[in-house]
Amino acid sequence: MKKVLAIGIAVCVILGILWVTLFNKKSDLTEELQTRLEGQSSEVSLKIGETSLKASEELRLFYAEREYAEAWSSNGKLTKLGEELKFEIGESKYDGLNPEDYHASEIELLFLAISDQKGKLKAKPFADLADLDLMLTDAFFQLARHLEIGKIDPSKLKSAWDLGVNTPSINYNELLNESIRKGSIKDGLESLYPEFKIYKKGREVIRDLDEKRKIDTLVWKTVNLKKSLKIGDSHASVPGLRNRLIFWGYLKPYELKDNLVFDPQMEEGLKKYQLNNGMEPDGAIGNLTAESLNNSPARLLDIAAVNMERLRWLSDTLRDSELILVNVANYQLDYLNKLDTVLTAKVIVGKEYNASPVFSAPMTYIAFSPYWNIPASITKDEIVPAVRKNPKYLAQKNMEVVTSSGEPVNPKPGDWSAETFPYLIRQKPGGSNSLGLVKFMFPNEHSIYIHDTPARSLFQLENRALSHGCIRIQDPEKFAALLLKDDPSWTSEKINEAMNQEKEQIVQLKKHIPVVIFYLTFWADSNGAPHFRSDIYNRDQEVLLALKGTE
């Protein structure tokens, strides 16, 4: 009896060992992944062949937490999630990103190497499956990071972007696990988009442009005009420009006796084009219109890509419910309250060599009937030479010389040296003051502010890059009323009175609203309509080269 019992116990032990062995045995693929990830030093980046994996640290953590189980195949079949991620990598081009940054070609080759047309695994070494798993996971982490904060670090660009650098706010490891658990890679990646609606609208514009690019057969030779073309003019460039208007849908194809003549039908289509692209719809083809019409679908795709990246940089900046936005490239200020635009005004911005910087600061006070404290550079380069030529210059311009404490002073003749002038010059309040009748202050290191101007006619110009860097606004009275709306004592009459005093009046604002000065040469509006603007400071190319480069 004891012998039988002993045999029974031995059998149970053996079966138990077999049970544990069978059910704890790691799959060949799991062992392959573990060998790959544990076999390389954590100090070096992981590589698959000649391809470096960008998210080595995240990869090691992700697979260690799942005990090195594969993420994108199961029981001999590629999962739907693996197919979905491969698809989303391709879709990243509509974010203005390059799918090749996420191993698109390598992943496609691996899919072909291990799959038949039905998606079943072929009898291939587990090395290919491990390669595919690691590349897909690395691609997810890279794409997630780029969607959330952008591919480029804007602080490393020559063209200033002083809006801070976004930092990841999401654990991408947790995001991937959650996406796998919920069965949707698309939802996980889309959760990283900037919160403002124009981002998704921009993706749709890029999708449409990509379709236009595929059917584009035009020759996009650059058109340079010595003078504007208007209705009735005959010019060798007219047929090509007409074909571009037809291509973009502003004209239907039609017959002409003389194809070189700028005809009324072409003018009608041109006006629609100008209106949709932020230009004065005057029906004439000047330099700005010609520059715009020179852009092929491929070129517009590049411009859109640059600005989708800028939108990703902006995502942390535009979170306040009330904002003052100035798009320098669009010459426009928008006052937003809970994402609704409550005021839109034309603005004048800095000339190319006095470019208005990109930054953000809170609006803290208004100066009615302001003095203009003239910057030292303008005093040196413009005022002092003018006074030396014309001693009455200051009186004619309603200016005075003051000490650093603001006390008026009468300089000696020998003081008027551009290099050693010891005083400050300011322009007194009044209608001729270069700041106009009011200025809006958001103190910053750039000494930039928003102000009125006596030269109101300049707002009718298309190219409004005319200032020394500050922002001139077309409707200062309306802007002041909005900023003071929470104080009922500030009626329109009181604002008008404050703007026409002999002495400056400072009004501190109870609510400090963020002012964001930024630079976008493309965006899609809430209706999905595309808007492209001239790159007035030539900043797009630097961003484009960085986007197309490797990190």
Automatic annotation (TrEMBL):
PROSITE patterns: LD_TPASE. Residues 322-496 form the L,D-TPase catalytic domain. This is Murein L,D-transpeptidase YcbB/YkuD. One of its GO terms (biological process) is regulation of cell shape. Keywords: Cell shape, Cell wall biogenesis/degradation, Peptidoglycan synthesis, Transferase. The keyword Cell wall biogenesis/degradation applies. Gene3D superfamilies: L,D-transpeptidase catalytic domain-like, PGBD-like superfamily/PGBD. Pfam families: PG_binding_1 (PF01471), Scaffold (PF20142), YkuD (PF03734). Pathway: Cell wall biogenesis; peptidoglycan biosynthesis. The active site is at residues 451, 470. GO terms for molecular function: carboxypeptidase activity; transferase activity. It comes from Algoriphagus alkaliphilus. Belongs to the YkuD family.
